[in-house]
Write a structure and sequence with these properties.
Elements: H1 10-19, H2 21-32, E1 35-36, H3 37-45, H4 55-67, E2 71-76, E3 82-87, H5 89-122
Antiparallel strand pairs: 1-3, 2-3
Helix pairs in contact: 1-2, 2-5
């Protein structure tokens, strides 16, 4: 596949959206159930391993995932407007894979840390 300089191939761009810091958390949280924007932000902020997500970053992440066909944005006709975010079928497939990778990482972190320590020791960085 030919790629011009400075542009990512479509697969790489989608992979970046799905595996970004906030993309991973959005997909995993939406795998549980649909969320409104503010409750999704609170759910992500309650994650111990990351700092708080800004409204701007969450909005950009949701827009990218919606554009990629992974997230559905549904505006409810009520006052004030009520917007729900949920996974599409494609998004559900991606979220299951991302969650599996996140769980694998958690389960193998002791081995990764051991490998890092061994590497640093061998390189004289310890």
């Amino acid at each position: 596949m030919a790629v011009s300089t400075g542009q990512l191939c479509p697969q790489r761009l989608t992979l970046e959206h799905v595996t970004s810091r906030w993309g991973v958390l959005v997909l995993i949280r939406l795998l549980e159930r649909s969320h409104r924007f503010a409750e999704l932000r609170r759910a992500i902020d309650s994650t111990d391993s990351v700092g708080p997500v800004t409204e701007k970053m969450l909005a950009q992440t949701l827009q990218s995932l919606e554009r990629d066909g992974l997230v559905n944005r549904e505006v409810k006709p009520v006052i004030p407007p009520h917007v729900d975010y949920s996974l599409t079928e494609l998004g559900h497939e991606a979220a299951v894979q991302i969650r599996a990778l996140a769980l694998w990482t958690n389960d193998r972190m002791d081995r990764v840390e051991r490998a890092r320590k061994d590497y640093d020791t061998a390189k004289g960085r310890a």
